[in-house]
Amino acid sequence: MSIAELDQKHIWHPFTQMAEWEPLSIVRGEGNFLFDEAGQKYFDGVSSLWCNVHGHANPRLNRALIAQAEKLAHSTFLGLTHEPGVRLAAAILEVVPQNLTRVFYSDSGSASVEIALKQSFQYWQLQGRSEKTKFVRFENAYHGDTLGAVAVGGIDVFHKMFGPLLMHSIAVRSPYEPLWSKDAGRGLELALADLDHVLQNADSIAALVMEPLVQGAAGMLTHPPGFLSAVAKRCAAAGIHLIVDEVATGFGRTGTLFACEKEDVEPDFLCLAKGISGGYLPLAATLCTEGIFAAFLGARSEMKHFFHGHTYTANPLACAVGIESLAMLRERAADVAALAALVTSTARTFDGKPYVREVRTCGTMVGIELGDANGGELPWDKFVGAKVCNIARRQGMMLRPLGDTIIWMPPLSSSKTEIESLRQATETAIQECFT
Ligand SMILES: Cc1ncc(COP(=O)(O)O)c(C=O)c1O
What we know:
Layout: H1 3-10, E1 26-30, E2 33-36, E3 41-44, H2 47-50, H3 59-71, H4 83-95, E4 100-106, H5 109-126, E5 134-138, H6 147-151, H7 156-159, E6 169-172, H8 187-198, E7 205-210, E8 214-215, E9 221-222, H9 227-238, E10 241-245, H10 259-262, E11 269-272, E12 284-289, H11 290-295, H12 316-331, H13 333-348, E13 356-362, E14 365-370, H14 384-394, E15 397-398, E16 400-402, E17 405-408, H15 416-434
Parallel strand pairs: 3-15, 5-6, 5-7, 7-10, 10-11
Antiparallel strand pairs: 1-2, 2-3, 4-12, 8-9, 11-12, 13-14, 14-17, 16-17
This protein binds pyridoxal-5'-phosphate.
Pyridoxal-5'-phosphate binds next to helix 5.
């Protein structure tokens, strides 16, 4: 039986309508390309769901992985420690906002957010602030698919179904306003006014959670400059924690190592995943301040410690690759900044093109929203975004849409020629789809 047939027989894929699923089996990755069973080559235009950093089968990352596998593949972090876990934490703490001093590992972006929510909640309980039980989030937010993360998300198609299972969170207006909105240009002002209103009840609020600069899964909805720092100031003034979710934006995607740098923001919690292991292995981390960490200290009998942990927490293989990946990113900081500028300017060439409704960019993160001939919304159930990506795939370009928004998030090792091929394939696919 072929892999495709076996897949059809046994596998249930994420975010996939299995009744219409046509398997495409990837057998190999090299540099910024993936190869299927038939030997067809594809540029990895979305970095394998936004996590690949330095390309596939990178020799330095491979060496780090193999060297670690020969020493220790896994040992629990519950009550034991190991060098890769400790060294990666120290390396990360060198490059994140300086108020963050502690690293709590897990294995997915969703888990990193759940952990921040639980730690914030428990922190306030330990402080005797038992009334601080609520969380604030933004409209259109996405923080993952486990129930705690879903509870602070706001994308209806992903989250509405599970409403009855979720803890309540308070939604604040997103600062993103599309070009065609009557409130275009007023997003920052309106969102901050809504936030100010919500923060009048800050006594009952533990934390606010947000994606910095861009709401990725909602379709790369970009925030006005200054919004992140304005929110941070308000959280500090209101006495609530700020949880910044850099699962998507972290490790170079916006052109700087972290989005927080762009607005000099020091969050109380920082959530990291995806690029943390260069896109090789599942790894995540929730960072917090020494003050938050210290609140959990005491005699064991006081039962103040944080009762949470996953079997593969701080997996040494993932951490060893993460150390090498971060070192490479730091060495290549100027190249990453240049790539971000190139991807942004390349994407902006789609502005005003037929069937392009809006182009949204944040460094290497791009959303090209498609529209009808008059710039109107496309009927959602025609799945035009998916059709465009399927056409691009036939030209050797691997893309994945979010609704009718075409996403680009190329590996940070992409060349100028590869970015030009990304542009060409997208343009041709849009033209072909609409003619
Ligand atoms: C901002 C953000 N947070 C959390 C997640 C969830 O990460 P994971 O899929 O690793 O659970 C994602 C995934 O796309 C994300 O974009």
